[in-house]
Amino acid sequence: MDGRAVLAWCRRQPGATEETPFGPETLVFKVGGHMFAAAARLNPGSVTLKADPDLAEFLREQYPGITPGTT
Predict the structure, then answer these.
(1) For all residues of the chain together, what is the average pLDDT?
(2) Contacts of 30 (CB under 8 A, 6+ apart)
(3) Going by fewer Cβ within 10 Å, which terminus of the chain is more open, N or C?
Protein backbone atom coordinates (compact mmCIF):
# COMPACT_ATOMS: atom_id res chain seq x y z
CA MET A 1 0.00 0.00 0.00
CA ASP A 2 1.45 3.38 -0.93
CA GLY A 3 1.04 6.73 0.83
CA ARG A 4 -1.90 7.83 -1.30
CA ALA A 5 -3.76 4.59 -0.55
CA VAL A 6 -3.18 5.14 3.18
CA LEU A 7 -4.54 8.69 2.90
CA ALA A 8 -7.63 7.34 1.13
CA TRP A 9 -8.06 4.82 3.96
CA CYS A 10 -7.75 7.61 6.54
CA ARG A 11 -10.43 9.63 4.77
CA ARG A 12 -12.84 6.67 4.87
CA GLN A 13 -12.64 6.16 8.65
CA PRO A 14 -15.91 6.89 10.45
CA GLY A 15 -15.85 10.36 12.00
CA ALA A 16 -12.46 11.25 10.51
CA THR A 17 -11.63 14.88 9.87
CA GLU A 18 -8.79 16.20 7.73
CA GLU A 19 -7.00 19.31 8.96
CA THR A 20 -3.82 21.32 8.40
CA PRO A 21 -2.88 22.62 11.89
CA PHE A 22 0.86 22.62 11.09
CA GLY A 23 0.49 24.57 7.84
CA PRO A 24 -0.73 23.76 4.33
CA GLU A 25 1.99 21.18 3.61
CA THR A 26 0.97 18.63 6.28
CA LEU A 27 -2.34 16.77 6.45
CA VAL A 28 -3.51 15.65 9.88
CA PHE A 29 -6.36 13.18 10.36
CA LYS A 30 -8.35 13.15 13.59
CA VAL A 31 -11.25 11.24 15.11
CA GLY A 32 -13.01 12.82 18.05
CA GLY A 33 -10.39 15.58 18.14
CA HIS A 34 -7.51 13.10 18.52
CA MET A 35 -4.86 12.80 15.81
CA PHE A 36 -4.34 9.34 14.35
CA ALA A 37 -2.30 10.08 11.21
CA ALA A 38 -0.19 12.75 9.51
CA ALA A 39 1.41 12.99 6.07
CA ALA A 40 2.78 15.39 3.50
CA ARG A 41 -0.08 16.83 1.46
CA LEU A 42 1.47 16.73 -2.02
CA ASN A 43 3.80 13.74 -1.90
CA PRO A 44 2.77 11.27 0.80
CA GLY A 45 5.75 8.93 0.44
CA SER A 46 5.25 7.98 4.06
CA VAL A 47 2.49 8.35 6.61
CA THR A 48 2.94 8.71 10.36
CA LEU A 49 0.38 6.71 12.33
CA LYS A 50 -0.19 6.78 16.07
CA ALA A 51 0.03 3.38 17.72
CA ASP A 52 0.42 1.77 21.09
CA PRO A 53 4.21 1.63 21.73
CA ASP A 54 4.26 -2.14 22.28
CA LEU A 55 2.22 -2.80 19.15
CA ALA A 56 4.41 -0.43 17.15
CA GLU A 57 7.56 -2.27 18.27
CA PHE A 58 6.02 -5.62 17.35
CA LEU A 59 5.00 -4.34 13.90
CA ARG A 60 8.49 -2.92 13.25
CA GLU A 61 9.96 -6.34 14.06
CA GLN A 62 7.59 -8.01 11.59
CA TYR A 63 7.65 -5.54 8.69
CA PRO A 64 10.84 -3.77 7.57
CA GLY A 65 8.81 -1.01 5.89
CA ILE A 66 7.49 0.19 9.27
CA THR A 67 9.91 2.58 10.89
CA PRO A 68 9.72 4.81 13.96
CA GLY A 69 8.51 8.34 13.42
CA THR A 70 10.91 11.23 13.67
CA THR A 71 10.53 14.13 16.02
Answers:
(1) 90
(2) 16, 17, 19, 36
(3) C
